[in-house]
Amino acid sequence: MKQKIEKNTVQETLIIPLYSRKIAKEKFPDLIGDKSSDDIINKIDYDFSDKEKYFNSAIGLYGALEVAQREFDLECEIKEYLKKREDASVVNLGCGLNDLFSSVNNGKCKGYNLDFEEVIKTREELLEKQDNEFNIACDLNDYSWFEKIEKDKGVIFVASGVFYYFKKEEVKNLFVKMSEYFKCGALAFDTCNKTGLKMVLRLLKTMDMKEVGSYFCISDNLEELKSWSDNFENVSSKSYMNGYRKLKDIRLLYKFFNIFTDKIFNMQIIKIEFK
Ligand SMILES: C[S@@+](CC[C@H](N)C(=O)[O-])C[C@H]1O[C@@H](n2cnc3c(N)ncnc32)[C@H](O)[C@@H]1O
User: Fold this and answer.
1) Helix (H) or strand (E) holding 137
2) For a tag on the chain, would you pick the N or C end, based on fewer CB atoms within 10 A?
3) Measured from the CB, is residue 218 less than 6 Å from ligand 1?
4) Does residue 96 have its Cβ closer than 6 Å to ligand 1?
5) What is the CATH number assigned to the segment(s) 3-274?
């Protein structure tokens, strides 16, 4: 039986990066190492027919480029962390059906994929796990998952496309608690400003996910985020589209969009280290 993705829930949003990875692999194969999206898409019970037009439009293709860049950005952050702590834990918060761990697995680290129970169930059916990889079904806002992560050898957390759907207080409480529990850990995630958040909401409407809200963004230059906890250090940000690798051989239109995502939406990857 095909695995079902519940409509109009935050879980359904995983469809967007999943399909974007498939498109990115087809159109920009040099930019993404994705091995699984095509197969997963064939195995889930989800009607993509009304979404294909969007994904193949100029904006949709640019969205696929964004997802390829975000994967690369977060892979860089993980690999950087693993250079110092090769047997650390690598935690994918709100993993969806993303196979990021296979690209960074050095055989010594441990990989953890966290998402709601329904998503993890689907994941278990569709994505093969490696020996050093674990799936944890949880609500990220219920911190009992902390105890399931090995933390003594260091922990790098990543979240791609996840915190847009959290309220600010939820993000704040989660980050503060993580910084207290996971000493010497680090967290990297993507975000944008208020204008970018409106664009996320518009995308959800286009995707017919009208009941999913998007709330969290960062509009100042990280001052508020830095003030959340004395356990944060080296809070830094890089451009999501241009901060980790430059895209040279792309259409002029996408180069123009790149400037737009930087200047108008302030799409960025933020990294926080925990003391
Ligand atoms: C846009 S998808 C991104 C999926 C994946 N990170 C990727 O890049 O393909 C957002 C994911 O966050 C998960 N998520 C959102 N809120 C969550 C929460 N409170 N607890 C666990 N997972 C959550 C959703 O179920 C969904 O899989």
Assistant:
1) strand 133-137
2) N
3) no
4) yes
5) 3.40.50.150
